[in-house]
Amino acid sequence: MSGLYLHIPFCRKRCTYCDFHFSTTFDNYRSSLIAALVRELILRSPESTAPLQTIYFGGGTPSILTSAELGHIFEAVHQHYKVTSDCEISFEANPEDINQKNLEAWKAVGINRLSIGLQTFSNEDLLWMNRAHQVKDGLDGIKLAQNLGFDNISVDLIYGLPGQSLAAWEASLAAVFELGVQHLSAYCLTIEPKTALNHLVRKKKLQPADEVLQSEQFLSLLDKSKAFGFEQYEISNFSLKGFHSKHNSSYWKFEPYIGIGPSAHSFDGEKRRWNVRNNTTYTKNVGKNETWFDCEYLSSNEYRNEQILLGLRTIWGLDIRTLKSEFTTKEKAQIEEFTLLGWLCWEQDQITLTQEGKLHADGIAAALFRLD
Ligand SMILES: C[S@@+](CC[C@H](N)C(=O)[O-])C[C@H]1O[C@@H](n2cnc3c(N)ncnc32)[C@H](O)[C@@H]1O
Ligand code: SF4
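Above: the input record for the complex with iron/sulfur cluster. Below: its predicted structure, written as tokens.
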């Protein structure tokens, strides 16, 4: 598996909850940043030793790109990388950018999978989230994309929102499964330290959701997705048969990928590399060929910890044959304890989370971590 990730670090507005890397003021350096991104693509092409099977545009907001900018990026990809004929090309599109002209431009460059950030079916929620669209924009956008032949569409939703009842979440789920989309990513709201949401909560302007209610919403997500024929193949990801995100699955399966753009991460099977999280420094340093990234070889414990964390989050589970050393007696006892609690299932070489265990995924993995 060989994947390419491109990070587009521009957004129109700052969503209250978001801690990803982006800037909302970029007019004066937009073209030089795209030039740097293309330059990084070219400089790093020798790292791509096999034809690309997946390309993923994430952000930030890739759908801010003009068709000329997209064309420029794709030209560099096709000139400098081999791309398989059935390459999955995913593109995060914000509802306010979905219109006929853009959809046609996205199709023309080969984008064949859209990930659309609906986030919620409540206009009131979209308001405190500071989103740049209303519910109708997302729904109209999905219909239009389907009419234009996009047949691999994913929707992002967030649950565990302040004031969101179980009934409201279940109504959102019923609505999303009626849309005829192939994939759903559903994330529990996290309150990140440096966000406006954290400030609103600290100032008591928003009351965070109760954790028990969030767990009920998660369990209802598991039930409803199954009832609508969606398979949960990772804690937050659900799809119809044949529509797993190939790109994201490669992260969870610990396969190599190249990440381009400010803040993008890369993994070559041994070391992790991460680009600087600053648009100006990135643009300047890539332009001058001065270092714009840091990297680190994973120690054998770090490698093992990530295998456990990522493996347990997926339906494929943790394949213990891939671990370089066996579990110690103490670790086996810990696994036995989780099994008795009904959280883990160990069959032959695979360890997977049970439904109940999925509520405790990160804690279970952390209990099995080895520290350097
Ligand atoms: C990096 S965002 C980019 C997507 C796109 N710009 C958009 O806003 O739709 C990817 C997804 O992460 C999720 N996300 C971001 N911050 C989150 C948070 N604090 N808690 C839960 N989900 C979050 C949202 O569902 C979002 O669609
Ligand atoms: S959620 Fe999307 S649009 Fe909102 S700030 Fe984050 S990346 Fe930008």
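Notes for the reader.
The mean pLDDT is 96.
Residues 11, 14-15, 18, 20, 22, 59-61, 94, 117 surround iron/sulfur cluster (ligand 2) (CB under 6 Å).
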